[in-house]
Amino acid sequence: MKESFFRSMTWLHTWTGLLVSWLLLLIFFAGTLSYYRYEINLWMKPELHSGVLRHYEDIDKGAVLRQGQAYLQSTAADAPVWTLRLPTHRLPFVSFGWQDAAKEGERRGQFHEHYLTDDDELISDIRATKGGHFFYRLHFDLHYLPVTLARYLVGFATMFMLLAIVTGIVIHKRIFKDFFAMRFNKGSRSWLDGHTLNSVLALPYHLMITYTGLIALMFIYMPSALETGFQGNRRALEQQLAPPQLSTTPTGNKASLVSLEHILPDVLARASGTPIRDIRIQNPQDANSRILVVLRNDSRIADHEYQLVYAGTTGQFIGQIGDFPSDVGQAHDTLIGLHAARFATPALRFAFFISGLLGCAMVASGALLWSKKLRQKQQKQLDKGNKRSFGLYLTESLNLGVIAGLPIAAASYLWANRVISVDYPGRFDAEINLFFAGLGITLLLALLGWINWRRALFTAAWIWLGLPLLNALTSSENLLSNIVKGQWFLAWVDLLALIIGTALLLTARQCKPAMHKAQSTISASEAMK
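Request: output the structure for the sequence above.
Response:
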């Protein structure tokens, strides 16, 4: 019975890990880069690299609000929503924005944002790019697929990963003892040790990120819970999970907006030292206007908004929103906050990033271990000059194409941001298309047998290592100047590029200089015979 259970768990661990490993690697890789999506956003907008970054404590809040209100009044007086952003640890700049009225068929109108410089000038001409948000959305929407289908696929892969983690703990009887037994140059034994090391080193993170990932979209996967608990009333569920969004109906009667600078002392007093994240004005030119002051929640794990509400025409305080979330909402926001790590300090964020890379290594090493063992089983046949089986050909090609292709694709996306002309009308989509082109070309070359691990990893390494130089040539700042000026928000992207590029370079140097020759290289059509 015991042996049968162990065999069953081993089989389940192997196949739940292998079948979704390549999709799971894409999800994990995109999610890991998403920890620095705001840094990547800013890096991909070189127009904002000089004179824009600042700290909340260093700005004259009254002057900023006065200037922002005057600017929006003159630029977007008829817009239904104004937004004034103050610097945060994730968005370290001041900006003034407005949202157009939604057109027919649109969920919301287009949002415009202009950025304030140290010289009180406003930058409005910014290149079109999705920036780091691309990796964030790719993490669970997979880009080209319909959203619902993509999220079901992501949920399917995530559930398989959770099973693989749990069964992996069960079958590794000496999991923590083996953690300290990294044996090099021992064939599949070394791959197993590496797989165990990557898995155990960040095991709490792997369990947390997988479980909370399922929770984030659980009502898509388990609609029966919505039907049972809320009789199918999704609005009732949303009211439990999040504070009600204040929405005012314009009266059509024109009225002047109170000075934002005038209500600032009351806002600061009620905030009790909590910094202001942004100020939103609904119907700014209407008698029924509202001012929403959103406070930062940097120190809280729960991803929850806290707002102070004022009457737009008088500046009278109306009340607070979100200060007493429901138990359901608090639990949900805490789990989502853990998954997204928006609360993390720079050091903790880097720890999350490293843990994410270990997750990528765990998935990749598991897939490589399986193909390594399969190759060993077929080694006698290969030594006789026989072809690889189709299963071995497919797994080895997918391993090479996806594991090496993802870093090539991500670096290609960042290069495209600077290489494609700013005036090119389709550059927003072109950047994204080049990401998938980099991945697709690498995968195709791997399937055709025209590239090996050493060449692919060297290619990825040099593309990543070239990013700081590219930034220096196409931006007003560079890695050294950003460090000297204390602009670590920008410097981090260049530093991460150097870290990733160096890791890929060291890995490439460990690969054999030549790939297996004709006896082990086979086309898909030959494998089908």
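The mean pLDDT is 88.
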